[in-house]
Design brief:
Shape: globular
CATH architecture of the largest domain: Orthogonal Bundle
Number of strands: 10
Strand content: 5-15%
Order of helices and strands: HEEEHEHHHHHHHEEEHEHHEHHEH
Radius of gyration: 21 Å
CATH topology of the largest domain: Arc Repressor Mutant, subunit A
Oligomer: single chain
């Protein structure tokens, strides 16, 4: 389980000591370099504030980190399985390639066996690993001010139009339109539960979502239509602020979020979102509870729709809403994330740590 790990201070001490007892069980992602390592990595120790700890390779990759070439965190699994060794070497040699099951079969491997082996060893399939690598590299290129053609090549798309179409699905606009003067900017934030996209202007946060949320392109389009502004690549101060607050949240140091927000919704949906923010961390509510709390006891279905329309995950904690029978219900970030968040927030319940804003 992700949150059965020791606290981050203990893990950072283990990193400084290069403690081998955590090898293969804990990995560190370094935000200043974008690399993840084993705790025994011989590289210079990173600063404490730049460290994110994960209990799996999948968590590191989903958060946007790439494996270190010095300590080779993927190597132990590769050493024991020739199939994994072959495909990891192929991916390293061609990180921009759009791998397919046909490519896997052409190398003499059974695709279903490959899926099972990678899932068992890393918690992620080979094709998912390759896709995350392409997407991460293309986003890094654009964030650094690189040319669209450079990002296209890093992402492994065989034509500019194919790349623009794929990127449009993520951010809602073609990267060739970015000028660097957009009043809204999007950037990735790495978290232990996967990469998130944050969109902000100079003063407020408009969106915070996990990157694979299906509704993300439509949400970004909604923001553009509501503001009349375009979305570029990069970040403003609200994104910096929310990244720091998310770091404290996942370390269970604070559940307070004070980043200024910009809602995009009707008065009714805004009222629901405000009420969601009143649910203390470690507690849950049903849709009917929320409907009664806003003075609309017969509006349970409308409350559920408003909950699903939330575009600022975690800060507007729609994950704290469960079914009337206590069961987990739909969550745009995935039910497994909802469960993890509820488990994490139990650490705040009854403590003196900062309550949710």
């Amino acid at each position: 389980m992700l949150f059965d790990l020791p606290d981050d201070d203990t893990l950072y001490t283990a990193l400084l000591d290069r403690d081998p007892s955590y090898d293969g069980q804990v990995f560190v992602g370094v935000t200043s370099t974008g690399i993840f390592c084993r705790l025994t990595c011989p590289a210079r120790n990173p600063k404490r504030e730049n460290c994110r700890f994960f209990d799996s390779v999948a968590g590191c990759l989903e958060a946007g980190f790439r494996p270190c070439k010095r300590c080779s965190p993927l190597a132990p699994a590769a050493d024991t399985d020739p199939l994994i060794r072959d495909l990891l070497a192929a991916l390293e040699a061609q990180p921009s390639r759009r791998w397919s099951e046909a490519d896997i079969a052409a190398r003499g491997h059974d695709p279903s066996t490959v899926r099972r082996s990678f899932k068992r060893q890393f918690g992620i399939t080979f094709l998912e690993m390759a896709r995350l690598s392409r997407l991460r590299d293309s986003f890094v290129t654009l964030s650094a001010g690189g040319r669209v053609i450079d990002a296209q090549q890093n992402a492994g798309y065989d034509s500019p139009s194919a790349f623009r179409a794929a990127f449009a699905r993520l951010l809602g606009c073609a990267p060739g339109r970015f000028t660097g003067k957009e009043t809204l900017r999007a950037d990735w934030i790495a978290t232990p539960l996967g990469a998130m996209v944050a969109v902000s202007d100079k003063t407020r946060l408009h969106l915070l979502e996990f990157v694979e949320r299906r509704a993300l392109p439509a949400e970004l389009q909604k923001i553009r239509q509501a503001t009349g502004d375009e979305i570029g690549i990069g970040r403003f101060d609200p994104t910096e602020q929310v990244e720091a607050e998310l770091t404290a949240f996942f370390r269970t140091e604070s559940s307070r979020f004070e980043t200024p927000l910009r809602y995009h919704g009707t008065p009714f949906t805004r009222a629901v979102w405000d009420e969601l923010r009143q649910i203390p961390p470690g507690q849950t509510r049903s849709y009917s509870d929320l409907a009664r709390s806003i003075g609309k006891p017969s509006a349970t279905r409308a409350v559920a729709r408003a909950n699903g329309a939330n575009m600022i995950a975690l800060i507007v904690p729609c994950h704290r809403v469960i079914g009337a029978d206590g069961s987990l219900t739909g969550y745009g970030g995935g039910l497994w994330r909802k469960q993890k968040l509820i488990e994490l927030e139990r650490g705040f319940a009854g403590s003196r740590k900062s309550p949710g804003a």
